[in-house]
Design a protein that fits this description.
The chain is 39% helix and 18% strand. By secondary structure, the chain is α/β, with parallel strands linked by helices. It folds into 2 domains: 166 residues, Ribonuclease Z/Hydroxyacylglutathione hydrolase-like (Metallo-beta-lactamase, Chain A), CATH 3.60.15.10; 93 residues, no CATH class.
């Protein structure tokens, strides 16, 4: 081993800049985040928890769906692929009503790919936005049942004693459309793939296909009157504070990346890099500039957020990279 290290030093091989950090150098999940997590038994693989009278969250610890129990049956919001086989069993633990309606918040397979396990339910109404339904018809994916009722804009679903509001304010995450699901009477709101309470958003700003809208979605959420917020991922139930905190994080990302991008001298960095490698590899020269903006931004973001939200050292660089694309080419 010693010989190899000496050899590497002698011939000047350096560790590439993109080398993954060693796994044990990452921060542990913040204790405050762990403390508020819903516990999910490993053997059982799921849990169902009442968050409002007759409104339940189902989770396997990574994905979430919701079941709204009405006098006329259960309205299920999303059917994640990861625990789709347990959905009917979980609901049977809390009610003898059967699932009559399934709502898709958006078309991504991780959130609705478990619908195939509900294919045997007679007359199951499956509701989505029209463009989501068109997309799913085109995909023809056996995991994702095709909706049989679709709408554009907004729909008030009156079911038994509950009124469930489905609204497509903007597409902040998927191309075909994203739904807000709210039960105003219970101050319940479900908005998928924006934030995870206690954590920074998932990679690349929760895989947003539209950063411009993603930046605006927080105010759309805050315009609702709610005290229970379901974000679709991980284990905690959120509230307004979580939305405000993630909004502050995302605004900090935006301002920081914009300031550092606008004040970093691209020509200077490309020139300094060209001194070492010449001018032929234009991609690499430009990438040196982008990487400098990303690294400088990350230092600031890490110092301000590492003790507030979990996952900063896992995903913040991806957030900065996504934000940089927006700031440089769209903003
Ligand atoms: Zn998604």
């Amino acid at each position: 081993m010693k010989k190899i290290i000496i050899l590497i030093v002698l011939i000047g091989i350096s560790v590439p800049a993109f080398a993954q950090k060693s796994l044990d150098s990452y921060h542990s999940v913040l204790q405050s985040t762990l403390d508020r997590s819903i516990k999910v038994s490993h053997e059982k693989g799921y849990t169902i928890k009442e968050v409002k009278p007759n409104i339940y969250v189902l989770t396997d610890g990574i994905w979430q769906s919701a079941a709204i129990v009405t006098l006329d049956g259960v309205v299920l919001i999303d059917a994640p692929e990861s625990f789709g086989q347990n959905i009917e069993k979980a609901i049977a633990e809390v009610t003898d009503k059967r699932i009559t309606t399934l709502v898709y918040t958006h078309g991504h397979s991780d959130h609705i790919g478990g619908s195939k396990y509900l294919a045997n339910i007679e007359n199951l109404e499956i509701i989505s936005l029209t463009k989501v339904a068109d997309f799913l018809r085109e995909q023809n994916d056996p995991r994702r049942l095709i909706p049989n009722r679709s709408f554009e804009g907004a729909l008030v679903l009156k079911k038994g004693n509950k009124q469930i509001y489905l609204s497509n304010h903007m597409n902040y995450h998927s191309n075909e459309g994203d739904l807000f699901v709210s039960v105003p009477e219970d101050k319940f709101l479900m908005v998928i793939d924006v934030l995870a309470p206690g954590y920074v958003p998932f990679k690349n700003l929760d895989l947003s296909n539209n950063v411009h809208n993603y930046l605006k979605v927080f105010d759309q959420i805050l315009a609702y009157d709610f005290d229970v917020f379901i974000g679709g991922h991980l284990t905690a139930i959120g509230d307004k504070e979580d939305v405000l905190q993630t909004k502050a994080y995302v605004e900090d990302l935006y301002k920081t990346v914009k300031r550092i991008h606008n004040s970093t001298n691209m020509i200077e960095i490309m020139g300094a890099t060209a001194q070492k490698i010449g001018w032929d590899n234009k991609y690499l020269l430009f990438d040196a500039f982008l990487n400098k903006v990303i690294e400088d931004s990350y230092k600031e973001i890490e110092s301000r957020w590492i003790d507030k939200l979990a996952g900063v050292d896992v995903f913040s660089k991806s957030h900065i990279s996504t934000m940089l694309n927006y700031v440089r080419w769209d903003d």
